Fold these 4 entries.
Entry 1:
Amino acid sequence: MNSSLISEGSHRVAVYYQTQYDPSLAANSPFGFYVTTLPLIGLITHLLLAAFHINFDDVSVHLNDFVPEAPIFVQMWADIAVLQQNGIKVIGMLGGAAPGTYTCLTPDLFDTYYPVLRDYIRRFKLDGLDLDVEQDTPLDDILHLMDQLKHDFGEDFIITFAPVASALEEGANLSGFDYIELENKAGHMISWYNAQFYSGFGNFFPDDLYLAIVNFGKGLDPSRLVATTLTNPADGFGFIDIDEIISSAKNLSEMHHFNFGGVAGWEYFNSLPGADNEPYLWAQQMSDAMHELKANQT
């Protein structure tokens, strides 16, 4: 089934795609073993391409260690275009654990650094940005960035955030601003939150924290809360088994009249149960589960 048939408003299946070349496998290209995303067609709704960084010293944007137009990414961009032709939205993840990106988007530096980012979004036809703010950043700087993105790319441009899950109930937070205040001021511009339920900042099984976030303060509609979990224990702390993820997703959906934002996996290349050789199997199982839930939605 074409992934575009799944509602944009719920039951998303997304994967983060940061490792384009798997160092554990024998090379199948001049740059190493290329991990293609083409098997994800029909399985996911969104590909979260990680990680874009803005570099202060030379006023540049890198995708991981290279400029986005580098030869190492030529095949990746060709495959991504095919995904988009098949209804999958491709969202660039901006920021992450490496500091510095959001320091380049302060009011005094914005006009110098933002245009470089804007031009790459246009050049590679990204459908949105996932703002992963893991450094102390003033809320006003984030609001300014969002306003400019909507001005430049229109209301259909997808803006998501990737906070640690606890930040959505004003707990531990890596971003330096209050997400409840962000939601109150600019929730209409935020498509959804890819909350990180791992690394000690929350767990998706049992589902207590997801429920706490949905019910915190004025509440957050479950259709706008995507649970991001680890796909392999090698990728970080707090891995839970795929069966537990599906169990929580089903339970939460039933509690909310089958209204559920969906799931995301960090990250694609070594996802269990298929691991390096068949990483798409995680997405396949999640897709099957989300389609079942979608069929029950009223």
Note: The first helix runs from residue 74 to 85.
Entry 2:
Amino acid sequence: MANADPGRDYSDEDAAMSQASAPMEENGAHPSPGSSKQNGNAMSHVDRYGFIGGSQYTDPDDERRLPSDILRKRELKWLEMFENWEKWMSKRFKKIKERCRKGIPPSLRSRAWQYLCGSKFLMENNKGRFENYLQQSGDPKWMDDIKKDLHRQFPLHVMFTSKDGYGQEDLFKILKAYTIHNPKDGYCQAQAPIAAVLLMHMPAEQAFWCLVSICEKYLPGYFSPGLEAVQVDGDVLFGLVKRTSPAIYKHLKKQDVIPILYMTEWFMCVFTRTLPWSSVLRVWDVFFCEGVKVLFRVGLVLVRITLGEPGTLSKCPSLYETLEALRRLPLQLLEEEGLIQETLRLNINERDMEKEHQKQVQRRRAKEKAKDASRSKSKTRKT
């Protein structure tokens, strides 16, 4: 079995099930979400991100678009940065960060992500390795797990609707290659949606090296057996909730709503299963630039938006209602620009996060030490 199952897209599966049970059109086909009738037939509408329905579908009438002149200016600025990337990274990183927070132009997002995470360098210095991985058979256990998960990744996106389509085929290649690249960790289901998002923006080999960078540089230990790194970061998030939203912290503490119950999918899947799609991409722009602290900032905002409104906590009298609220986020409040601005307004900096991380690591070590001492004492009594 794979390590965890936060990669399953229940919302998309629910949408697909709902679609399957919907009344059929005259031609025997089910109307897809976001479709209209033309000459008596259902015509699918594909949004600009490639979705034909489900929770990720973006209605063109609702989306926020930059004026074309502003977009062109931003594109030119990014192209200028690409020409002297190392210089910008070493001497003007603050400006790069500022431009990532504004949003990377869609036409340059793929290239920018690769530059930001260093995968371009990885690929250039490992020529032929990806193809070599693909020629190997791989561990049958991991191959079976990957194949079982392929159809679950964004089934209402044009790349992944078909079982034998190029999207699922490339997704298999990337995930298989990673198990050979890192046989110790193998495959974790949460890697699949991350790899799928990368494939929406770039070819398979480029997506693979981006995945390597995310797993090894941004989220080390997240996809290892036991998920210890995720558990530690859950405790860190809880500690930061205590600082930023004391009333919510007390509520969660009283009901024993431990972080691993609600933040696992958020962090491990980098919010691909959580936010409106335009917001997912904006979060990824900042994540690739600033790293894991972005996950904490977004997580804190989601907790505050969900449980911070007056009267909300009283509507969540038990663990069940609280978890339901955290799992069914108010998407209308998670629009991309507002979400990013909320993360920047938080009164939490990187030093605060680091202190909390050290505190939680020491706390876990003390617990483990106490357990070891207890086990040792128990063994002594038995002998």
Note: Residues 134 and 173 are 7 Å apart (CA to CA).
Entry 3:
Amino acid sequence: MTPTPSSLAEVLRQAEPDARIGWTEEDLSRMRASATTMAKHLAEGADVYGVTRGFGPLVAFPAAESAGEQGEGLISHLGSAQGEPLPPEVSRLVVALRLTSMRRGYSAVSVDFWQELVGLWNRGFTPVIPREGTVSASGDLQPLASAALAFAGQGEAWVSDGPGRWSRVPADEALARLGAAPVRWSAREALSFVNGSGVSLAVTLHNHQQVEDVVRASAMMTARMADLLGANPQAYAHGVAEARGQAGQTAVAAWIRSDLPAGAERAPSRPLQEPYSLRCAPQVLGAVLDQLSAASRILLREAVGTTDNPVSHGDEVLHGGNFHAMPVGLCSDQIGLALQQVAYLADRQLSLLCASETNGGLPPMLTPRPGAGSGLAGVQVSATSFVSRIRQLVTPASLTALPCNNGNQDHVPMALNGANSVAQAIELAWLVVGSLGVGLAQLAALSGRSEEAGPWARIAELSPPLDRDRPLAAEVRAVRDALAEEAARRADRWPLPEL
């Protein structure tokens, strides 16, 4: 049997350009047994949703006599997704999740057809998947139907133009480049493919990884700020974390300590206790890590499970609701709420840097020319705007559910809507991170810290001292990118703690 991923990192690696979906004879045996159970069930005259009966509220009516007509009708009527496409790497993960779900042997799909899809995916075929238009209740129907239509030669596909470079072409052209014919979807295979949480799950997995890195960047900046200001390092002591016993807090405190100079002490000019945005960073960021750790276990189970309907189990064909994406939706909502706390913390730390009362008596807005210059005033206002917009975006999507489908889908999770919004919020959170990073570069310059090495030396180059006002938008983005790269590099030595 093909090994099951044991971490989210392993799941995400399934979508890398050189990744391949494989199988063992045991996998194929399970799949064949599942398909045999379905065939036996049908031969006995039993009804099967989507195969002998219609879809959704139309289950009361018989299906088309042709399995091909039924399957093509399913992906055609669901071809209503809209909006900007998911990034290619997310689209590849979407398809990988659906194909590995089918491989488990509960989906009763044709082995030959499954191998045809896997062959195309392994050769790089990547559908263009619009991100809007599903309630994620019967799975992410519309976006997954767009992927299915691409395999059938309709819509668009991504074509790799080299590492990290992609272009969009008509799907039939992408298939022709591979020397492949469009696939023909039959009823069971089409339903199994679209009836799952693969799109909301793929986006949420990428969001989860990004928020982990945002937390790492925030811990780096907290340590840098504490060092530059001479803040009391006791706030990050192991004893404080040990006394409480929270795994996330313990991890973040250790991360911050590892970035502080050996023997760091409180500067005589600093208060015994700093404002909460500096002193309580381990508690805030640690709480976020704990939420990410909890979500990672739920998302991993979803990624290695089977989320379509009906399922073949033993000698039974069981009708249920495994396609309902509530586990993903609630995780996504919580990730968004946690992200907001990180962005809010960074915004408050930037505020400390901009006020003479808390930045060590340096000029307000960290300008060397108060009055003639305004320094970081514009950057700080923009950061505040970003946090406000993040709060709008991370309002839990699960609170916005509406019944649809003639009352058949009367409880829906809106998981992909939420995941899409969180993805937008993450982009803004990184801009808040970049804004604080620029602030720290200016704090270092005004403090005479020009001897720095490592990532902070690079950031000093990207945001040189302000001798007079200049537009800082590009510097915020450049510093953001540098911090994001450094945070990703630290993932192995600053891992997500286990609860």
Note: The mean pLDDT is 96.
Entry 4:
Amino acid sequence: MLTVVPVSAQLPLSLQNLVVENVAVGECAFRPAPPPPSQHQAVSPAGSAPSSSSTRPACYFTPPNRTVCFRGIETKRFQAGGKFNLTRWLILCDWPLRSFDPLVLSRLVPRIERLAVTGRVLQRLAHDFPALPYLRMVNITGTRLNHTGVNAFYELERLQVLNLRGNELEQIQPYRFRSGHVEVYLQGNLWNCTNDMIWLLKEQSRQYVDKPTLVCKDWKYTGRPVMTAMEYKRVVRESCLHEEIWNCSCHVSYLRLSENGLSFHPMIMVNCSDRGFYQLPQYLPGNTTVLHIARNKLQSVDSLTTNEHYQSVQDIYLDENRITTIDILEDTIWLDNFRILSLRGNRLNRIRVYSVEHAIERNPGVGKLYLSNNPWRCGCRFAIRFQRFLRKHESLVADSRNITCYFINDDDGRKQYLPVLTVTPNDICRPSEHNTAAFYNTLSIIFASLIVLIFTKLAYDYYHYRKYGKLPWLIMKMP
């Protein structure tokens, strides 16, 4: 069985986004007013578009060494020298471009020690950071940055803190650093846990400081802790090395939170299609809910009823195998609890219609049943029952319109195929069979009517006895 990984008290269980700390750069909250128009500039009337001066870069130097720039960098001020040459801490607010090129830093602020960049337009770094011998802290937060290379910060020899919180990173590989130890902060990104970040489990340096708080944002694992998702992926990967399924692939398709909120229950998908199986594998990872085993050489589905590893399997895809019957599933727990059963392209010619129908009626979670591309036999009684079943459950039998059956043409001995939903007794029943079927149908109606009449008479006699205390006339005449 797959080990259930407990949830640490530090790991968030909420499906809502976490509050991301230290993303907002305080200096960017005080936006400067646009400069007053010069004598040669016309003032924009109310309601018109702002003048170009309100969108130009504006930089402000604060002694002793801090510069805050809005909407870009005023390169002319830095190139002109003066107080801007003293800049050691550069804060870039509302960065207006989709990309930021770190190469400009070595030209404008070669002695920079701290850098902060924010702005919802920024999506990528144009180049890796160059060698900036004094740069110790890089803070790129609150942007739409979605990718960084492993060497993006490699040349920063004195880097101590890398803050990438609150961006749109979906996946990263371990960064390469020259400096001895760098604290990396990654909280609040859009982590796609369907990707492989198992390396975070093996990372022992504690360099990635807030990794226990990282949360998945992809559709499959939304709100689940990244570390928990990666731990399950690791366990499932190891389970998939079992000799029975070593050539199959295994994936965690979903992590369901337990009722007490203290652990997760994984839902595992195993894909063994096109692997040459002659029988269903005798081993599956615990909590396997979906099994793809199409295009093999299976002839039997016995393991669904006898093997405990299949108790949790709800969706099974058995397409294009050699299965000739599923009668063994009649009145089984598995058939009463399945969600998807796909049997397309096998060798089925008959099924026990009443058994499948009863199972569907008892099964509240049934989703889809696929039965097309099988050599269904157009026997008179079976085809009519099968047709009634398909019409009644057309929404569940997803491929019902594509299901055909065949009969042997008396004239040339060839197989003739007809859609089951449109077949009529005249198409498939010989006159004797047709009359026999009609006779049995009439007899069934007569017997049903008699049963109803008998129960009605019993109910009347019971009521008459309770009210008047008299037994039925027939009972009174009996010796």
Note: The radius of gyration is 36 Å.
